[in-house]
Amino acid sequence: MWIIPIPVALIIGLLIGIQLPFGNGAASEPAPDAAPQEQQQPPQQQQAPGEEVEVPDMARVDPEDPTAVGDVDAPVVMVAYSDFQCPYCAKWTANTLPTLMDKYVETGKLRIEWRDLDIFGDESLKAAEAAQAAAMQDGYLDFHEEMSKGGKIAKASAFEDKNLKATAEKLGMDGDQLIKDMNGVHAPDVVQQNIDEAMELGVTSTPSFLLNKTPFVGAQPTENFIEAIDKEIKAAEKDDQ
């Protein structure tokens, strides 16, 4: 079990040619003229020359996982650490997810497993628990997309019980049951499990992803995701030969 945060900043460049450090809040690229701020960089594990960094495989590949989409036998599993109050997560959901669904998920090449976090506070936590409750009615993806509509985060009032109930009913779910489930035991337990996992990995910014065992940080252009996923597919095909 990993007890040292993944030194993502050291190995992310291998994937996309740039370094994007984990930090508090939403992951984004710094402005071109921004001065480096060393105090914002997370502690990094020292790596000896030629030493490979071992990244854990966090994919659960559970066919009963109601927050996942895609074939359990897909060659690439994307673990997505997200937050419903993260503006970059909302942009990624609106701008990139549809392409990945059409190009890779629907063709059996990609599986996406979400881990909703509480980086932005109480609304994030309540939204994550509501999303798990929606998942218990097979409505996770619909809820996720509804709360990211137009590439914008939902207002804090959207997570009040009466509005969550209305949203659930709009999406064809039982609103009363959603409220009951999000205040029950299972949904909060799953959310806490996801939060603990992210903390163990050193994930403190969203969106952050693992493509199989390759870290990928930020709501980058869709083309970057396509390139990275294609690379993982080719690697998987080579391993199968």
From TrEMBL:
Domain Thioredoxin: 29-234
Gene3D superfamilies documented for this protein: Glutaredoxin
Flavoprotein found in the keyword field: no
Keyword Oxidoreductase attached: yes
Biased composition annotated in UniProt, kind: Low complexity: 27-50
Region (Disordered): 27-54
GO molecular function, one term: oxidoreductase activity
Keywords assigned by UniProt, alphabetized: Disulfide bond, Isomerase, Oxidoreductase, Redox-active center, Signal
Top-rank taxon, per record: Bacteria
Homology family: Belongs to the thioredoxin family. DsbA subfamily.
Name of the protein described by the UniProt record: Protein-disulfide isomerase
Higher taxonomy: Bacteria, Bacillati, Actinomycetota, Actinomycetes, Micrococcales
